[in-house]
Amino acid sequence: MNYKYIDQLAKCIKERYCEHTSDNYSLYADSLVNFLEMDKNKPLILSNEDYKNQNTIQLYRGYNTSDDRFQEHKRNFAVGQFQRRFLPGNVYGVGLYFSDEETTAKQYTDTYSKVISAKISEKAKIVSSEKMRDYIANFDKALRYQINLIFGDRLNQDDKEYFMQRMYSLTDVMFAAKLLNIDGITSDGHNYGTNYIIFNRSALVVNEEDFKDVINKSSTDCEPGENE
Fold it and tell me: Angle at Cα 155 formed by Cα 1 and Cα 149, nearest 5°?
């Protein structure tokens, strides 16, 4: 964890910037990702043959953006920043939202073609949203201890309880997932298949062939809050 960002993160919680309706949500998302150092974790890039031999679930993520921005998002996903922007459908807070159905992912694109794919690492720890809620309840004391230890007097007890309740309601999962070493959660898709919300990119593997147009270029990270 990068304590350079602890004051900014604490302020965002105190001011309730973490509410999805807040005009300052992007500041909270940026502070959270920076504090948890999520930019450090990247997906494992495999050769085409090794990727095909990876016998795990394949995931898809669609983008509604211009061609140039899509290339930028691909580069960021593979070798750059963790996405920060919150969208109304992102009910579990900051994370990378995928589906195991390509058709579902394509519904989030403007041309039905701007889709990236990845597979889940064999070592990834992915749990259902219901199981995640159980984890939070079972480790309640440990999580409260960690929050007290991390934030100290930067947050009062009401602020700490507010943040805990956001975890319990699964409105804000990333912080708890990081402390509990959980890489992502699943939820039933509104249309078809299962949604996967990934908090740790190193839980994913990607095909070198799919990203060869961006991974060999220097990464030009999107500004925080701009990812779709």
Answer: 45
